[in-house]
Design a protein that fits this description.
The radius of gyration is 21 Å and the shape is globular. The two termini are 25 Å apart. By secondary structure, the chain is an alpha/beta fold. It has a 7-stranded mixed beta sheet with strand order 2-10-9-6-5-3-4, with helices on both faces. Strands 13-14-16 form a 3-stranded antiparallel beta sheet. A two-stranded parallel sheet has the order 1-15. It is built from 13 helices and 16 strands. The structure holds ligand T4K.
């Protein structure tokens, strides 16, 4: 470790010799994974609804207590297939404070995302702002459980019911999280997950749609496989959204380590909570103690007025020290191509505010509590340095 009194941002050497990432992949038992890959090779069944994919789907159905899990090749394709299977057309109301894939998946389907502001307390779509955005072209609401914290599902469902809209969720962050004691994956018409390498549970690349609706599930299965419902028989438009057996083998292996990954995330979150507690203007987002959470995102809000430095100044200081914190979800989907060239239907003051102050800090199995202690000291020193 280098001299902390000589910050890297001013030309010193970085405190951490190797970069600390927000999304260092968690990997379960390597020998078990490799044995499964050997099995797949021996079976010579590598894709197309293979035995590992079916086993993974069954395990996820059990974990979430949901009727159907349809595994696919990415979280983005899960969103696209879900949109298709739920009949989303015209306009769909979404938050802008999300990863751009949420908006892009709709756009790719020929559906226009209409951006809605978020609740500053939860970072999720604000139900009080949704109804003003509904037009005769609106077919649905796509909530995002940002950071794995559940949307206000009941309020959104009431709006959807009142206006005859589909309610679906992007649950990319929310595997193993609950809402009112029920696992996320069970709400709305369907929910989509991401199992990307950077998620606490990964299948290299991958994702899934979960639903309790048999017809939505059947449409997802068809759409995932070109619309085939049997050999030589196509009944709908579909794409190649299939998960392969190597990815499913990774998923099965990582599911076996899921509770360990969550324990590590929880330990890290608590270490950050302790280390950041006394720093004015650096507020760690909270997870409900009454719910199950995966704690995969450690997100702070930097209040320049109290902290004495901006989120971007802190980001630059940390990055120089090899702490690769990320400014998720700056600058917001509405400020990205192609959406930035379109007029907003309503202003997004809370989204604008949040995109200027949130920072995701490194966590997962690639980070230990000693690293976290140093990161917190660095943040404390940066805040007090700038204030002094
Ligand atoms: N909806 C929401 C709400 C989402 O957040 C996402 C994805 C999606 C939908 C779409 O799901 P997918 O189609 O991706 O399954 C990352 C992830 O790529 C993305 O999956 C995730 N959300 C988003 C929040 O974060 P980037 O552009 O920040 O990734 P990248 O490559 O910069 O990696 C992040 C950090 O992890 C870096 O410090 C490097 C490190 N890393 C990354 C990979 C891939 C590793 O150490 N090893 C690795 O293998 O988007």
């Amino acid at each position: 470790m280098s001299d902390p009194s000589s910050p890297a941002v001013s030309g010193g050497s970085p405190i951490f010799e190797h970069p600390l990432h927000v999304g260092r992949p968690n990997v379960g038992d390597r020998a078990t994974f490799l044995a499964r890959v050997e099995d797949a090779l021996d079976r010579v069944w590598l894709s197309n609804d293979g035995p590992y994919v079916r086993e993974l789907e069954a395990h996820i159905e059990q974990l979430l207590g949901v009727r159907h899990c349809i595994a696919v090749c990415s979280g983005t394709v899960a969103l696209q297939i879900m949109a298709e299977a739920c009949g989303l057309t015209g306009e769909v109301i979404v938050p802008s404070f999300t990863f751009v894939a949420t908006a892009h998946a709709l756009e790719w389907q020929g559906v226009t995302p209409v951006f809605c502001d978020v609740d500053p307390r939860t970072h999720n779509i604000d139900p009080a702002r949704v109804e003003d955005l509904i037009t005769e072209r609106t077919t649905g609401i796509l909530g995002v459980h940002v950071w794995g914290r559940p949307c206000d599902v009941e309020a959104l469902q009431a709006i959807a019911d009142r206006h005859g809209l589909v309610l679906a969720f992007d649950a990319a962050h929310a595997l193993a999280c609950s809402h009112n004691g029920r696992m996320i994956g069970n709400f709305g018409a369907a929910e989509s997950f991401s199992f990307h390498a950077t998620k606490f549970f990964n299948t290299f690349e991958g994702g899934a749609i979960t639903t309790n609706d048999d017809e939505v599930a059947a449409r997802c299965r068809l759409a995932r496989n070109f619309g085939f419902d049997g050999p030589d028989h196509v009944v709908s438009v579909g794409i190649n959204g299939k998960m392969n057996e190597v990815c499913a083998a990774m998923g099965l292996t990582n599911l076996e380590a899921l509770s360990t990954f969550i324990e590590v995330n929880t330990r890290n979150y608590r270490a950050y909570a302790e280390g950041l507690e006394a720093i004015p203007g650096v507020d760690l987002i909270q997870y409900s103690q009454a719910e199950q959470s995966n704690y995969q995102y450690v997100v702070i809000e930097v209040d320049e007025g109290r902290a004495g430095l901006t989120r971007d100044q802190l980001h630059a200081i940390l990055t120089a020290e090899n702490v690769l914190a990320r400014r998720y979800f700056y600058p917001g989907c509405h400020a990205m191509v192609p959406y930035c060239s379109r007029p907003l239907r309503a202003s997004l003051p809370q989204t604008e505010r949040l995109t200027g102050r949130t920072l995701s800090l490194p966590t997962g199995t690639g980070v230990d509590v000693n690293d976290i202690r140093v990161i917190c000291q660095l943040i404390a020193a940066s805040a007090s340095d700038v204030r002094a």
